[in-house]
Amino acid sequence: MKTLVLDAFSGISGDMFLGALFDLGLSKTALEEQLAKLKVTGYQLLVDRTSHSSIYGTNFDVILADHQVKDNGITEHGHHHGRSFATIKQLIEASELSDSIKQRAVKLFQEIAVAEAHVHHQKVSEVHFHEVGAIDSIVDLVGAAIALDLMKIDRIVVNNLADGTGTIKIAHGIVPVPVPAVMQLRVGTKIPIHLRSEVTTELITPTGMALVKCLASEFDTTPSGILERTGYGFGNREIGSLNALRASIYNTLLSNQSVEQEQDQVMLIETNLDDVTGEQLADGIAGLIERGAKDAWSEPIMMKKGRPAYKLCLLADPAQRKILVKYLFAKTPAIGVRYQLLKREIMQRKVKLIKTSYGKLHVKQLTYGEVTKLSLEHQELAKLATLNQRPLVDLRTEILAELQQIKQKKGI
Ligand SMILES: O=C([S-])c1cc(C(=O)S)c[n+]([C@@H]2O[C@H](COP(=O)(O)O)[C@@H](O)[C@H]2O)c1
Ligand code: NI
């Protein structure tokens, strides 16, 4: 499970987002190959690793060709006057990008279109993107959807989201900061934004706000797991302090990597719910696991007054108790929880990335005295089963057999 944490202390724009992902190792060639599926030409990606305030990070920009830009037979001369939301949606949907990338990219444009339609009193399908519709915005938004897919990001958390204050001049004239499209994108959300009074310019662009609104599942929290990498995507405006989006990747699969002791302590947290819906229960369990619970499940119970109900249970590192209890109170009807510290006997565990003839996957080697066994990650196995077009059960048996051979020949 990979969580991308965006530390947006100087806001966010499309360029800052991609710059930060390049700084984390996103491949320019892989992004270009995917973007080529849009059949839009006349631009180049500028990815420049450089320093600001002695901090190294990446400047990202989309450089447009001066005279002619062609996409799907449409030719523009000199200036890039934009397109309607309907045209951009068509362009994305007609491409050979994967369905999940298309859906994410269209959703991002749609959010901006809905906000712009409201601000300018237009129909959504007729929203004519000006700056937003230029090629660089298509590259920023579709590029963001592609990049998250390439980097296999499962979850995004946004921390310290900040905007400036004052006014700026845009194509519409002089507008207040946060700019009208950003304010409209915030409507109906509780996304926390801190306004920096000492910065009298725009820090969050409509593209940046759409990325936050559509992609972030949580705000102002630090995920459990190992911090694998951190990087910076620079902003263009001079703001008197570091103008960068910091992006970090936390890996919760790797956090389980090595367990050397055979006993430890684990916290069991439980709550009885007689008014929870099936959807809330399933989402709650998934959310607890995403936030670092070692396991989470529900048990059918009978409560007072003959009420059929559920007990929602989870096991977690005791240090995670506050975060997980807060989540239970926020996302389920729970108004009280019980917890107890339990002793556990556990198998010692080593996780290694192993190359098999079906592809690479993480293998857990488990030992307890003389007892040993291997365990595979179900999600990785499911992906390999799809890739190799093999039934999952058969693939598990075949991979385990191959791993035994590798173990006998050279050890794992
Ligand atoms: O082009 C339009 S309609 C536009 C609207 C607004 C409103 O807030 S309304 C703001 N802007 C400004 O354009 C630049 C580029 O924004 P991107 O999201 O395309 O990076 C930025 O300064 C916006 O505030 C444009
Ligand atoms: Ni506008």
Characteristics of this structure?
412 residues; alpha+beta; 4-stranded antiparallel beta sheet; 11 helices; 21 strands; binds the ligand O=C([S-])c1cc(C(=O)S)c[n+]([C@@H]2O[C@H](COP(=O)(O)O)[C@@H](O)[C@H]2O)c1; binds nickel (II) ion
Quick structural summary:
This protein has 412 residues and is an alpha+beta fold. It has helices at 14-23, 28-35, 85-93, 99-120, 135-150, 180-186, 206-215, 278-290, 321-331, 378-388, 392-410; strands at residues 2-7, 43-52, 55-64, 68-71, 74-77, 155-159, 162-163, 167-170, 173-176, 194-195, 218-219, 226-234, 244-251, 258-259, 263-273, 295-303, 307-316, 338-345, 348-356, 359-368, 371-376. A five-stranded mixed sheet has the order 11-6-1-13-12. It has a four-stranded antiparallel sheet with strand order 14-19-20-21.
Structure in words:
Pfam families: Ni_insertion (PF01969). Belongs to the LarC family. GO terms for molecular function: lyase activity; nickel cation binding. The structure is a single chain. The protein is α+β, with helices and mostly antiparallel strands. It folds into 3 domains: 2-251, no CATH class; 260-345, Alpha-Beta Plaits (2-Layer Sandwich); 348-410, no CATH class. It is built from 11 helices and 21 strands. The strands form 7 sheets. Strands 11-6-1-13-12 form a 5-stranded mixed β-sheet. The protein has a 4-stranded antiparallel β-sheet with strand order 14-19-20-21. The longest helix is centred in the first third of the chain and has 22 residues, at 99-120. It is globular, with a radius of gyration of 24 Å. The structure holds the ligand O=C([S-])c1cc(C(=O)S)c[n+]([C@@H]2O[C@H](COP(=O)(O)O)[C@@H](O)[C@H]2O)c1 and nickel (II) ion. Nickel (II) ion (NI) is lined by residues 116, 119-120, 172, 181. The ligand O=C([S-])c1cc(C(=O)S)c[n+]([C@@H]2O[C@H](COP(=O)(O)O)[C@@H](O)[C@H]2O)c1 binds next to helix 4, helix 6 and helix 7.
